[in-house]
C-alpha cells in the first residue's frame, strides 16, 4: 500500500479508540501502509469535533468509547458528509454491525485485527463512500435514493456473480454505462436485473 501511495496524495486518517495501546498500534500500522494519521481521539465527542475541524479522508472509530460511543459518532460524521467511517468492533459485538451500517459506517474491522485486514477495510469504505456520493448526486429525494441504492446493490451482486467482477468494477460499469447511454444508474441497474443471462457469460456490452 505504501508503494501505491507514492506519487499520489496520501490519505488523511483520524483515529478514535479509547484504549491507548490499540490506538498506538493502529496509528503505526496506518503510517507503515502509507497513510497520514492527522488526529487521534479517546472518545466519540472529541472524534466528531476533530472530524469536523480536520476534514480527514477517513475516520476509524471504536464502537465502545466514553462520552459518545462510536455508533453515535459515526452517525454525526455521516450526517455531516465529512468522510467514510470504518468501525472497530470486538468479536462479541458482531450483532452491532448492522447498527453500525445504519449509523453510516462503510466498513468494519473485528478486533483483534492484523495489518493485512486494515487496508482492505479502508479501501472498501472509500469505495462505498464514493458510490453513495455518486448516487446522492443523481437522486434528490430520500425515498428514490434508497430505492436506487437497493437496485444498484442488487445489480452489483448480479454482475459480480455472473461476470466475476469485483464490487468496485461492478459499480464503475453501472456508472459508466449510465453516463454513456444518458440513463440513470437505477435504470441501468433495473435492466441488468431483468436482462442478465446465465452465470459464466461474457461481460455485458455497454
UniProtKB/TrEMBL annotation:
Q: Gene3D superfamilies annotated for this entry?
A: 3.40.50.2300, Winged helix-like DNA-binding domain superfamily/Winged helix DNA-binding domain (1.10.10.10)
User: What sequence ranges are listed for the domain Response regulatory?
Assistant: 12-126
Q: 4-aspartylphosphate modification sites?
A: 62
Gene Ontology molecular-function annotations: RNA binding
Give the keywords, sorted.
Cytoplasm, Phosphoprotein, Stress response, Transcription, Transcription antitermination, Transcription regulation, Two-component regulatory system
Keyword flag Transcription regulation: yes
Task: List, alphabetically, the Pfam families matched.
Answer: ANTAR, Response_reg
Any one of the GO CC terms: cytoplasm
Its localization reads:
Cytoplasm
The ANTAR domain covers 132-193
What InterPro entries does its record include? ANTAR, CheY-like_superfamily, Sig_transdc_resp-reg_antiterm, Sig_transdc_resp-reg_receiver, WH-like_DNA-bd_sf
Q: Which domain of life is it from?
A: Bacteria
Coiled coil residues, start to end: none
* Biological processes per GO annotation: phosphorelay signal transduction system; transcription antitermination
Principal location listed in the UniProt entry: cytoplasm
According to the record, the segments passing through the membrane are none
Summarize the protein's role: In addition, the PdtaR/PdtaS two-component system controls copper and nitric oxide (NO) resistance downstream of the intramembrane protease Rip1. This coupled Rip1/PdtaS/PdtaR circuit controls NO resistance and acute lung infection in mice by relieving PdtaR/PdtaS-mediated repression of isonitrile chalkophore biosynthesis. Two signals are required to fully inactivate the PdtaR/PdtaS system and mediate NO resistance: a cytoplasmic inhibitory signal through the PdtaS kinase mediated by direct sensing of NO and the production of PPE1-5', an NO-induced small RNA, to sequester PdtaR.
Name of the protein in its database record: Transcriptional regulatory protein PdtaR
Organism equals Phytohabitans flavus
Amino acid at each position: 500500500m505504501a508503494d501505491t501511495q507514492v506519487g499520489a496524495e496520501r490519505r488523511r486518517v483520524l483515529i478514535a479508540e479509547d484504549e491507548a495501546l490499540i490506538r498506538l498500534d493502529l496509528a503505526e500500522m496506518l503510517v507503515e501502509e502509507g497513510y497520514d494519521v492527522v488526529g487521534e481521539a479517546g472518545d466519540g465527542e472529541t472524534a466528531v469535533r476533530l472530524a469536523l475541524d480536520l476534514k480527514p479522508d477517513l475516520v476509524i472509530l471504536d464502537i465502545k468509547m466514553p462520552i459518545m460511543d462510536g455508533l453515535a459518532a459515526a452517525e454525526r460524521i455521516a450526517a455531516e458528509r465529512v468522510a467514510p467511517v470504518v468501525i472497530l468492533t470486538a468479536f462479541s459485538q458482531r450483532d452491532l454491525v448492522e447498527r453500525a451500517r445504519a449509523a453510516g459506517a462503510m466498513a468494519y474491522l473485528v478486533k483483534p485485527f492484523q495489518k493485512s485486514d486494515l487496508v482492505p477495510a479502508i479501501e472498501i469504505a472509500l469505495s462505498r463512500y464514493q458510490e453513495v456520493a455518486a448516487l446522492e448526486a443523481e437522486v434528490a429525494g430520500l425515498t428514490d435514493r434508497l430505492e436506487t441504492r437497493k437496485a444498484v446493490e442488487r445489480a452489483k451482486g448480479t454482475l459480480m456473480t455472473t461476470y466475476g467482477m469485483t464490487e468496485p468494477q461492478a459499480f464503475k460499469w453501472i456508472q459508466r454505462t449510465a453516463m454513456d447511454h444518458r440513463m440513470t444508474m437505477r435504470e441501468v441497474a433495473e435492466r441488468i436485473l431483468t436482462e442478465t443471462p446465465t452465470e459464466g457469460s461474457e461481460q455485458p456490452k455497454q
